[in-house]
Write a structure and sequence with these properties.
Chain A: This is Pyruvate dehydrogenase E1 component subunit alpha. The complex is a heterodimer. By secondary structure, chain A is α/β, with parallel strands linked by helices. In chain A, 41% of the residues lie in helices and 14% in strands. Chain A has a single domain, classed as Rossmann fold, CATH 3.40.50.970. Chain A has a 6-stranded mixed sheet with strand order 3-10-11-7-6-5. A 3-stranded antiparallel sheet of chain A has the order 1-2-4. In chain A, a hairpin with a 2-residue loop joins strand 8 and strand 9. Classes of the chains: A alpha/beta, B alpha/beta.
Chain lengths: 390, 356
Amino acid sequence: MLAALKAPAAAAAAARGFFSSAAKATAAAAPGASSFAFSDSTFATHNCEDLPSSTTATRDELLGLYETMVLIRRLENACDQAYKGKLIRGFCHLSTGQEAIAAGMEAAITKNDSIITAYRCHGFTMTRGGSPTEIIAELMGRRAGSSKGKGGSMHLFAPEFYGGNGIVGAQVPVGAGIALAHKYRDRNAMCFSMYGDGAANQGQVFEAYNMSKLWKLPVAFVCENNMYGMGTAASRAAASTKYFTRGDYISGARVDGMDVLAVREACRYAREWTLADKGPIVLEMVTYRYGGHSMSDPGTTYRTREEVQHMRSTSDCINGLMDRIIQSGLATEEELKAIDKKARATIDKAVAEAKASPEPDMSELFTEVYAKGTEPTYLRGRIPSENHYF
Amino acid sequence: MQGVNESRFIKNTREQALANPELAAVKNSETKKLNLYQAVNEALATALATDEKAVIFGEDVSFGGVFRCTMGLAEKFGKHRVFNTPLTEQGIAGFGIGVAAVGHTAIAEIQFADYVFPAFDQLVNEAAKYRYRSGNEFNVGGLTVRMPCMAVGHGAHYHSQSPEAYFAHTPGLKVVIPRSPIQTKGLLLAAIRDKNPVVFMEPKILYRAAVEQVPVDDYTLPLGKAEVIKEGKDLTVVGWGSQLYVLERAIAMAEKRMPGVSIELIDLRSILPWDIETVTKSVNKTGRLLIAHEAPQTGGFASEIATTVQEHCFLRLEAPIQRVCGWDTPFPLVFEKFYVPSAIRCFDAMERALKF
């Protein structure tokens, strides 16, 4: 018992083979495309048919996925730097290591589909169409930020991306509501309602499961299981860490969340499932965050440095895809390095633009509390001369 | 409820109902005798008929709900628009926020205001701030959350509370409490159509007790606007919901026992934002103020009114501002009559203010 408690969750997961990478390229399935087989441990299912044992991808698709993941990692690194340089303050949660989920999901869905997630949201904001400048400027509290600097890290939004939500688990029933609106409008669109392994224990999650199944809503609940809810290993917080089965009466699948092609395949599966009027589905993306929970957490007090290093060297999503691309012969290492360089330039430019953006005007303090034209007579400042009259 | 049938604020005829200048837009309307829950039903039916994006959900609402407010709506508008939820207040609020975030009109019912606390996080952190924290990219203006509030005679701890002050502390929300069927229909339609999330509290004791001739046509009444329902010159009294009928009786006692005295009564209607202008104008005229609400005194909304009025009317005040409220205890079953700000307690405070 003691030994089981002490065993780092991630090492146990690795032993179960979640991350045993991947899929060797086989003979091209179609001109310009290669077929990639998944390993036996890529997927596991709960009350649904097996996911495909292989997928195909073109050169453009692979390079696109690669570029997205590299951009997210550069973005997160830039945030880390800016935070350490005191340009960003407050709360900030980075997704370094988990990039495959945002990239793979976006590649599987349309712009009409919706995503809502928790506070580890920078990557999703970008894949949904938010610019790196908007994101970094928001974190810095600048006017060019996606919420004009009024929200900061946890509060990022983009078209059909309903945030960035700071309250653990609160976004999950909101995602169910978004799905109802899609169904009501007959839009042939669905919603990914995302949460972490920590939030998976919130009561609201189960309330949302129940409503969604009852009303057959087109929603995919996606648990990003990065092994630790803040500083607590998943197995210490959850009676069952088989998050993909915790919908009970809702079918589910566990997915190697470090394999971007597996993420894409699973999200396609979930999208088709929900749009075929089968109701909700639960996906568990097994992943790993390299950094701490937030900027104030070094991330090494509840797990070993060796564990983090092991995950980086054996399971990294970007390296995994790079190996596949090169082995398949669809692109060269030089071409990938050119993408790296371009991503660095893009993010550097965004940082410069964010730094150059001024802080929002004081008058913004009082805007958007109420709809324009429906405000109360005034909102109070700290002292009477700061009162804002509409 | 004592005093409602005889109240002069209840409009028993079409002429009385339509004499209200706020109803000028429907002055040719027919009227129909409705109690307060039927007025809620009328407003909801109007919302569903005029807004195809409107949906209603809550515990048992497709069967009419425990107070019959949604009776017949599922049959008339379809079960896909009026549907039951599980017992999941937090889920209901979050779900409503999601529906509204996409631009729909979400009308949620919380079965009793006392049950709203699991949904408090969703309303305070998600609904109220959605517009602000998304830089106006999204908002949940289409969200209205209805809930029955206030004492009912036997409700005890969990079927009696008036949580308006908690929500009044939340910029981004609006909070509304009507006093009668005519007011309910107009204010509820305004709340549903308002571009901000609104918490709409219905005094449950009035569901059947208050009956008026309600205009049949579609109309709204202004949010954020109080109404002077009785004019007077010596004391301003502010209340909302069913407390107004208690205050009416207390005023009648005071005016009878102190000949020559006349007391002004204001129905605040909107708790947030509240109509500072109407209240301070009245206090600047009378020089005295009494506020009464059922919720506990400490941190109750009367505190906010009292503070604001002393800022605006300091030199004009002739007596300390009187607060007559629930005691700072849970709402007791057996002591309800002693707990609520009864007509006698209100009368005592009026006398204190007038004889100071």
